[in-house]
Amino acid sequence: MEARLKKTECVKQAPLAQILPPVILGGAGFSYQVYPDPNISQVRQVLRQAFNLGLRAIDTSPYYEPSEELIGQAISEPDFANRYPRDQYIIMTKVGRLGADRFDYSPSWVRCSVNRSLERLHVDYLDVVFCHDIEYVTEEAALDAIGILLEFVREGKVRYIGASSYRIDLLLQLAQSVLDRYGRPLDVVQNWAQMTLQNNRLETDGLKNFRDLGISCVCNASPLTLGLLRSNGVPVGSLGDFHPAPAALRTAALRAADYVAEQGESLAALALRYAIWRARATSTSDFQVSTITGIGSTKELDENISAISQILLPTHGSPINSARVERDAPLWNKVQEILGSWLNFNFTSPEANWDVQQQKFVKLKL
Description:
alpha/beta; two-stranded antiparallel ribbon; 41% helix; globular; AKR; oxidoreductase
């Protein structure tokens, strides 16, 4: 899972598919959205243990407050920095989304946001910067932001550029427009909760099309569907319950968790193994599908690493433990049977009363 980078590659860069590892640590676990009290002690412990176990990539965002600041503090501490030089890990962050209903894709803010992220993270370059949740703004705004990110690429402050969204159709549309306007593809896209036991639309509707558009990497975030696919319900941080799942879907997920527990298994571990299996099964030497898993504690980290090591083999041959897949398959099928009509149910993003032109919620007409 380790990736080694050289600063000199900031000018002539290797394809991202060659350096992005299969598993990425999600910085949303250090945010008020999913954790009641994110703090430096928590982040320091998780990052040190994660790096000791071989994880070498972190995905965060200014929206995941205060994730960037805490990560930056942890990785800049002398004992960590001396043990893990900057060229031995990947940092991915985002621009554009500031809060639950606050977005700023203006060129001036994108420049400010990138420079602020560099300062917060105490680094002199960012490996990947995504335009965050592009469905909440116009395509023109996202395209302009991509243009600014390309300026940072030329300056060597950003190495690769991408876009994130729940909406696969809008990611594909933007990717085509980037090709048309800038004559080069996006390096990577990030989609969430759609290569999971509950929803596999990223695999069926997205991957081939992304590859055809020249994109070499796809990040599958939220393999547990924002914490839906686990035994203790959706995570609730200090900002309250933000999860988009309807009550009936939550109930079905809890029924599935109870069934899996009766079989002596954890739904969270089972769901993570499924997501990683599908990501590796759809990756090739020049097209990488990576899994971003949010981790907020060392306990969660140990559980995730255990699940990952059961399905992902440290080998240059077949990376998947086929015996584990065979063992898990009946449980995967049963979970999907329990989910029933909620299988491949899509969330609404953006919300029905969001106006992309005004970038704010408006009153719906009756």
